[in-house]
TrEMBL record:
Protein name listed in UniProt: C-factor
Encoding gene (name): 20213189
Entry keyword annotation includes Cytoplasm: no
Gene Ontology CC: one annotated term: cytoplasm
Short name of one Pfam family: adh_short
Gene3D superfamilies: NAD(P)-binding Rossmann-like Domain (3.40.50.720)
Organism domain of life: Eukaryota
Organism field: Helobdella robusta
InterPro entries: Fungal_SecMetab_SDRs (IPR051468), NAD(P)-bd_dom_sf (IPR036291), SDR_fam (IPR002347)
GO molecular function term, any single one: oxidoreductase activity
UniProtKB keywords: NADP, Oxidoreductase
């Protein structure tokens, strides 16, 4: 039988719409559904579909989080800690992201900085803020001697194939490509630094997905993308530390 994701607690960013919202929907359908789904977004009040899901499912806990509001991280971590206690946090999914299309003639310092802040700096800082709770989850499941998995203790950063240097044959998209390539490097370092604590880290490419970001002409729906991503996350172990996986299970070159 195929392994299935069995994380008890999962924290996600950017759940107001798109891939983040679909993650929440599909996590609720897992055979071993999480006890805690910490679904965050910039403005919970305006996220009607997400609010609806939380009303119907007691596993869904909502909190406002702008990922660039670094000063709010300690209180968000405390909010999670209060609920999960000694069990810690099993899985952090840094999903929130922005897509800037500025070409060479219009790219600006501001645009570069903004993409880096949201797509790379924020996932790194949030990961660091959650390390103590991820370590707790890892220890609760046997610490560094145990098998690594996304059900035990894991950080998944949602990147893009556009952040692959080897895959870049069409140029352009300076801020997006560079910020995701930087996210990839940050994730690789995290995977090395946190391995001894039993925390698995890597990046995933969701495919070209029909969301506000991907547009209507994108190749796949959020359902197909997230179904694939959950299957990938279910299958990862210690030999995958520093993974760069596509939603279809293939490995993407750095
Ligand atoms: P959407 O544009 O549909 O959604 C983006 C999400 O990120 C929204 O929930 C948005 O919140 C949130 N977000 C943006 N900025 C912030 C911030 N500062 N703080 C908190 N949340 C924020 O995009 P997708 O769902 O398509 O993308 C999700 C991830 O997948 C991104 O990291 C993206 O780069 C990646 N990706 C997507 C692809 C695609 O084809 N769609 C392809 C490859 C990668 P709000 O509603 O408040 O704006």
């Amino acid at each position: 039988m195929e392994a299935s994701l069995a994380a008890k607690s999962i924290f996600l960013t950017g759940c107001s719409r798109g891939i983040g919202l679909e993650f929440v929907k599909q996590l609720l359908k897992l055979p071993n559904k999480p006890k805690y789904i910490f679904a965050t977004c910039r403005d919970v009040e305006k996220a009607n579909e997400l609010k609806d899901l939380a009303k119907k499912n007691p596993e869904v806990y909502l909190h406002n989080l702008d990922v660039t509001d670094f000063e709010s991280f300690p209180s968000v971590v405390s909010w999670v800690k209060e609920k999960v206690g000694d069990g810690g946090l099993n899985l952090l999914i840094n999903n929130a992201g922005i897509f800037d299309v500025s070409a060479l003639d219009v790219i600006s310092r501001e645009k570069m900085k903004q993409s880096f802040e949201v797509n790379c700096v924020a996932p790194l800082m949030l990961a660091r803020a959650f390390v103590p709770l991820l370590k707790k989850a890892s220890s609760a499941a046997g610490g560094d001697n145990g098998m690594m998995s996304c059900s035990k203790a894991c950080i998944v950063n949602v990147t893009s194939r556009m952040g692959s240097i080897e895959d870049n044959t069409s140029g352009g998209h300076y801020s997006y490509r560079a910020s995701k390539a930087a996210l990839n490097m940050v994730s690789k370092s995290l995977s090395v630094d946190l391995k001894s604590a039993g925390i698995l880290v890597g990046v995933v490419h969701p495919g070209w997905v029909q969301t506000d970001m991907g547009g209507a002409n994108a190749l796949i729906t959020t359902e197909v993308s997230v179904k694939g991503l959950i299957k990938v996350l279910s299958s990862l172990n210690q030999s995958d530390a520093g993974f760069f996986k596509s939603f279809d299970g293939s490995t993407i070159p750095w």
